[in-house]
Amino acid sequence: MKNIEFNVPSLAVRSKLAKTFCLTLLLCTSGLPYAANPVRVKVSGPSTEAVVKEYEDDLLSVRAVASSSRSLIDLRTRDGASREIQLSRDVERTEVVARHGDRLVVINTLFGGASEVLVVDWKEGRSIDRFWCYAPSLSPDNSSIAFVRFYPTHFVSGPESQYRVYRLDRTPEANRVYSKHQTAGLGHPASDLGQPVYPLGRRALRQNVEVPEPDAHQHMSRVAWSDDSKAFAFIDAEGPRVDAVVVRANAATDEVKAWSWPLDKLADVCIRGMEKEGCTTLPVQAYELALDLRGGQLRVKLPASSLFPNGYSSAVSLPAAAVQ
Q1: Which residues contact 256 (CB under 8 A, 6 or more apart)?
Q2: Distance from the Cα of residue 127 to its chain's centroid
């Protein structure tokens, strides 16, 4: 293991510099457990700690704290108990802190673009589950996390987006029963978990790398939950197709239903622009999705760009089964 160290005063600049080196050298630790000569880039600076995320309710208060040397969760309960939970050195920033019952969920962005979900039993002050993924999205009632199964971004070809749901009211073991027949993934050992929701059938359990490009699903947007947390939507590309997808995953019965609609205009423009600015290269934040079950619509918007000089918008009418 080789170490490269820099001393940089600014926390923001340190984060950007470390990420730049990870991407440029293709040596970021996320997804590279088998690198022949791994190099860890350490960007150091003053030890001043900054609070990057806060959460508070009637039972506890939580601060996500970061410095040049460590990142941690500072948890304080209303009865006066105080606990610290160390975060991985791969964490770039904390995006979400929320509570569901006796579970605290912390969603972090990692250097290299993946995300880490940390589940904490806040009453006992200990981490009970941790996994890597892409595009995690917490439901409005804080009970479920929709995400894309993790895959390494380097030294593999044909990665595929496979969509999963993690239930915070279930044990870590219960969230892994779906993976008994799953083809083992590459990269982080704890990333094969969650209920498969799209694609379904045998394709849901196949390997998520080395998939032929015309057959591979690719997530193109963030996940948008309905207000009642019963369904969620996203934009997915499969070969030349670009689809709006709505998923209902019943937490009580584990029944999953998924509907997809081709966004023909979006697909046509994406294909024409692939050589210089394909739609799959747009950041997932660019897509604005709103899932309205009461109104029976999924609305998709894109701001004006070189691909869409006048922007893009589309409204999909949902079938009755999707809104019940």
Answers
A1: 195, 196, 197, 200, 247, 248, 249, 250
A2: 19
